[in-house]
Design brief:
Helix content is 0%, strand content 54%. The chain has strands at 2-6, 9-13, 21-24, 30-32, 39-41, 43-46, 52-61, 64-70, 73-75, 81-82. Strands 3-9-8-7-6 form a 5-stranded antiparallel sheet, with no helix packed on it. It contains no helices and 10 strands. It has 85 residues and is mostly beta strands. The chain has one domain (20-82).
Length: 85
């Protein structure tokens, strides 16, 4: 995790290399949470035009919303596993 300082504001960021992506997932898929061990459902978001998008897929665990996937591929370093049927 790094940070960019722009006009006095600190903006956190992280990078993901192509070799760090795992399985393909879609909104609605279930994952196993590395934090609590329970299953959660992946959710997409809306783009600037209000259309559904799966560029970033997140899940909720307790009061937190956590990033799981980018462009429909799990980020391995987050420890999230796709629940296989």
């Amino acid at each position: 995790m790094g940070k960019i300082i722009l006009e006095g504001k600190v903006i956190p960021y992280f990078t993901v290399g192509n070799g760090e992506f795992g399985k393909t997932v879609r909104a609605g898929d279930k994952i196993v949470c590395p934090n609590c061990g329970e299953t959660h459902v992946l959710h997409g978001g809306k783009n600037s035009e209000g259309e559904d998008t799966e560029v970033l897929l997140v899940y909720s665990c307790g009061k937190r919303t956590l990033l799981a996937a980018v462009d429909n591929r799990l980020v391995d370093r987050f420890g999230v596993r796709k629940l296989e049927a």
